[in-house]
Design a protein that fits this description.
Length: 301
């Protein structure tokens, strides 16, 4: 009985590791920002919309992580030389078949949670949903895997930024707005910083398997400049809200600027790439803090 309990515990730990729960901030923050922007502009229609947006986003994010785990292992991108967090397929904690099956299960769950949103938003949401479902796999798989072609950064800006924030806002008020576009870019840039740090850390191993991330194509220095530029744009775009509505609450997210500066300096000065795991954790924390502060600023203004 005890042995069986231990096996179940180990299996649960393996699945939680495979889900990469820390990455779910990239799914949570866009929905939070889009919802709070809708609240502040009078476009809010109900928390049930937020719930289904969150549930669908979480499922697609987890499915993407699982596909990434299995496909990168199959292509040889994840090996024993990996300096990032452990991957369950490569380490043998779960079989490739198990990971594929659960990945598709989460896509089915995403479809389930997406039906009420399709009913609410119509054809626009159908198109966004179908593209999102396909690219959960197509990010690393298929004939044109975005992550292997250097298009991962653009994908993240679009889907974890513009589409996620804009889609949430649209579902609440059935309208588009320039404010949602700006907020979507900010959130998308923050998620792209996570990808950029990840690719910077793994550039040597990615090069060996012809995974042509921007770090592989243009070098580490380029990616470090990219990270600094994205951080700068995130904070510069704050002035758009202040221009529309001069209000100190809309400057609340500037409180996270010292953390952003620290991350930039850390990434620039780092010598051992294994230390970038710390930068990745700090960037995830920054995304959460910035997103919450920006959302509070919208609501309180």
């Amino acid at each position: 009985m005890f042995a069986k309990s231990m096996l179940m515990t180990q299996s649960m730990q393996s699945w939680l590791l495979a889900f990469r729960l820390k990455t779910l901030t990239a799914a949570f923050i866009p929905v939070l920002v889009g919802t709070c922007l809708a609240l502040s502009t009078g476009h809010f229609s109900g928390w049930w919309i937020t719930f289904y947006c969150l549930a669908g986003a979480f499922c697609i994010q987890i499915a993407t992580n699982l596909f990434n785990d299995a496909i990168d292992f199959k292509k040889g991108a994840d090996t024993e030389e990996r300096i990032g967090p452990q991957r369950v397929t490569q380490s043998g904690r779960l079989s490739e078949k198990q990971v594929w099956m659960i990945a598709f299960s989460f896509l089915l769950l995403a479809i389930f949670f997406g039906w009420p949103l399709v009913w609410r938003g119509g054809l626009v949401i159908v198109l966004l949903g179908l593209i999102s479902l396909f690219l959960a796999y197509g990010y690393t798989g298929g004939p044109f895997p975005l992550a292997y072609l250097g298009l991962g950064d653009l994908f993240v800006i679009l889907f974890f930024g513009l589409f996620a924030v804009g889609g949430t806002f649209y579902l609440q008020g059935l309208e588009f707005s320039l404010e949602a576009l700006v907020a979507g870019l900010q959130v998308g840039f923050l998620s792209t910083i996570l990808i950029a740090i990840n690719n910077l850390r793994d550039s040597e191993s990615d090069k060996k398997v012809n995974k042509k991330t921007l770090a592989v194509r243009f070098g580490d220095r380029f990616v470090k400049w990219e990270i600094g530029l994205l951080f700068a744009l995130v904070y510069l775009f704050n002035f758009y809200y202040l221009y529309l509505k001069p209000n100190l609450w809309l400057a609340l997210s500037f409180l996270s600027l010292p953390l952003a500066i620290f991350i930039i300096r850390f990434v620039i000065s780092v010598r051992q790439k294994a230390h970038l795991n710390k930068a990745l954790g700090l960037a995830t924390l920054h995304q959460m803090v910035f997103g919450i502060l920006l959302s509070l600023g919208f609501v309180l203004s």
